[in-house]
Design goal:
With 336 residues, this protein is an alpha/beta fold. 29% of the residues lie in helices and 19% in strands. It has helices at residues 10-21, 43-53, 68-74, 80-89, 123-132, 152-159, 198-204, 247-254, 285-298, 318-328; strands at 4-7, 26-28, 35-39, 62-64, 94-99, 114-118, 136-137, 165-168, 179-182, 189-192, 209-210, 239-244, 260-264, 276-278, 306-310, 333-335. Bound molecules: threonylcarbamoyladenylate and magnesium ion (MG).
C-alpha cells in the first residue's frame, strides 16, 4: 500500500479527516508522541491499527476526543473527581479510564467494561478529530515494542507502506506518552506516569495510588490493571542497561567499556571517552522526556554491543522517563 505524505496544513488536515471517515488509518501528531488514528466506532478500521503495529490483541486503545460532548458518547459515568481533573489537565497529556458506554466496542477495550479517554492539546490533532466528527482510537504510531515515535520520520521508519497516511508536523513537545489514571476505583490509581506529573495529580487527588507496575516488573501471569504495562516496550535492539549514580560514577563505569555506547546527560558528555548520545540536561527532566525516544532509536544505528543509559531522577516528568527506560532496558538496573 502507498502511504500518503500529508502536510499539517488546512488541506492536509482535510484529507486526513476524509480518510478517517472512510475507514482508513492515519498517523497524526500529538503533543506527547505521534498516534496511529482510526474511527473508534469502525471495527474494521480499528483492526487495521492492530495489524499495522503488530500489537497484541488484548492491549486496549486510548480514544481521543476534541470536546466534552464526545466524552459523554464514550463514557457512561464520569465521577466528580474525574471532571475536576479534566478541567485542570485537558487539553493535554492526560488519559482517564472510565466506565464505557455500549457504543465502545470490544475492539477498543477487549474484555473490559472501561474505556481510556484523552483530549489532546496539539491543534492539528484536535482539528483532525473535530473534522472526522468521531472520537479517534490512537495508540502510539510505532511498531509494537519499539521506541515511541516523536517525529514523523520515526513513524515513516516503522509504518511506511502499512498505513494510509502520515501527517508531517514538528517533533512532539512533551516526548513521552500521556499519564493514565483509572477512576474506576476509589481512590483513583496512576497506571502509567506521563506528561502530567504525580505532583500535579496530587494537587487534585491527594490520596492517589501509584500502581506498583510503574516501577517494577509484573510477574508472569499476573493480572495487570493496564495491559500495556506487561509487555517489553520501547526497547532498542542493542542490549540496554539503566545506570543509577552520579555523573562521576556513571562516567567511570562507561569509560571502562569497549564496543559500547552511553546515553547520557549533557554534563556527562565531555568526560566520556566512548561514543555518546546526549538526551538532555540531567537537572531538567523535561529536556530528557523530549529526547529519550529519539536516543533509543538512534542507538541501534551505532552498531554497539551494549548501551548504558544514565537514569534520570524520578522527580516530576522524570518518573515517566524512568518508567520507559526501565522497560527499554528489560529491568536491568545497575546501581553505583
Ligand atoms: O500519549 C498517549 O497516550 C499516546 C498518544 C498517541 O495519545 N497514546 C498512547 O497509546 O500511548 P498506547 O496504546 O501506546 O498506550 C495506551 C496505554 C496502554 O498501556 C494500555 O494498556 C492502556 O493505555 N489502556 C488503554 N485502555 C485501557 C483500559 N480501558 N484500561 C486500562 N488500561 C488501558
Ligand atoms: Mg505505545
Amino acid at each position: 500500500m502507498e502511504t500518503l505524505k500529508l502536510k499539517a496544513d488546512k488541506k492536509g488536515i482535510e484529507i486526513a479527516a476524509e480518510i478517517l471517515k472512510n475507514g482508513g488509518v492515519v498517523a497524526i501528531p500529538t503533543e506527547t508522541v505521534y498516534g496511529l488514528a482510526a474511527n473508534c466506532f469502525d471495527e474494521a478500521a480499528v483492526k487495521k491499527i492492530f495489524e499495522a503495529k503488530g500489537r497484541p490483541q488484548d492491549n486496549p486503545l486510548i480514544v481521543h476526543i476534541s470536546d466534552m460532548e464526545m466524552l459523554g458518547v464514550v463514557a457512561r459515568k464520569v465521577p466528580e473527581i474525574a471532571l475536576r481533573c479534566a478541567e485542570k489537565f485537558w487539553r493535554g497529556p492526560f488519559t482517564m479510564i472510565l466506565p464505557k458506554t455500549d457504543k465502545v466496542g470490544d475492539c477498543i477495550s477487549p474484555n473490559l467494561d472501561t474505556v481510556a479517554v484523552r483530549m489532546p492539546q496539539n491543534p492539528v490533532a484536535l482539528e483532525i478529530i473535530r473534522q472526522s466528527g468521531v472520537p479517534l482510537a490512537a495508540p502510539s504510531a510505532n511498531t509494537s515494542g519499539s521506541p515511541s515515535p516523536t517525529s514523523p520520520y520515526h513513524v515513516e521508519a516503522d509504518l511506511d507502506g502499512k498505513i494510509d497516511a502520515i501527517v508531517y508536523s514538528d517533533e512532539c513537545a512533551v516526548g513521552v506518552e500521556s499519564t493514565v489514571v483509572t477512576f474506576c476505583e476509589n481512590p483513583p490509581r496512576l497506571l502509567r506516569p506521563g506528561g502530567i506529573t504525580p505532583e500535579q495529580l496530587k494537587e487534585i487527588i491527594p490520596d492517589i495510588v501509584i500502581d506498583k507496575a510503574v516501577l517494577s516488573e509484573s510477574e508472569k501471569g499476573e493480572l495487570v490493571a493496564s495491559p500495556g504495562m506487561k509487555y517489553k516496550h520501547y526497547a532498542p535492539k542493542t542490549e540496554s542497561f539503566l545506570v543509577e549514580g552520579d555523573s562521576d560514577a556513571f562516567v567511570g563505569l562507561v569509560n571502562s567499556k569497549e564496543n559500547c555506547v552511553a546515553i547520557c546527560f549533557k554534563e556527562d558528555t565531555p568526560k566520556i571517552t566512548i561514543p555518546t548520545l546526549c538526551y538532555g540536561d540531567g537537572e531538567d527532566e523535561s529536556s530528557l522526556a523530549h529526547s529519550v525516544f529519539k536516543a533509543l532509536r538512534e542507538v541501534d544505528e551505532m552498531g554497539a554491543k551494549e548501551v548504558y543509559i544514565h537514569a534520570p531522577s524520578k522527580r516530576g516528568i522524570g518518573l515517566a522517563v524512568y518508567n520507559r527506560l526501565l522497560r527499554a532496558s528489560g529491568f536491568k538496573v545497575i546501581t553505583l
